[in-house]
Amino acid sequence: MAQQVSQPRVEMHFDGRSAEVSKIYESILAVARSFGPVDEDPKKTSIHLTNTTAFAGIQTRRDYLILTVKSAHDITSDRISKREQASANRWHLELKLRTHKDVDSELKAWLRDAYLLSS
To answer: What mean pLDDT is predicted for residues 69-84?
Structure first.
């Protein structure tokens, strides 16, 4: 008899995490949903936020959250801790968010652009 593997759930990513990590996630989700429909697609090590395709990825840590956003170009900012050019016109940019106040107008604009890329 085959063993059934349980699918990852969004909630499991917040076990053992600070309350602030949940607040950051909820802030990101609220901003993303202000642009239109957003699905949460939990994976083993992250949560993908999708419209037609994934536009953001979230990895939780005990006291902070790592957000990866898609971009059509590189973004020059001290907030970007890691950048990867995935193709000629696609970048994956990583930020560490320590408080829900990090979800500011600059980040909202980056999320909006990422959301539009996934439409």
So the answer is: 97
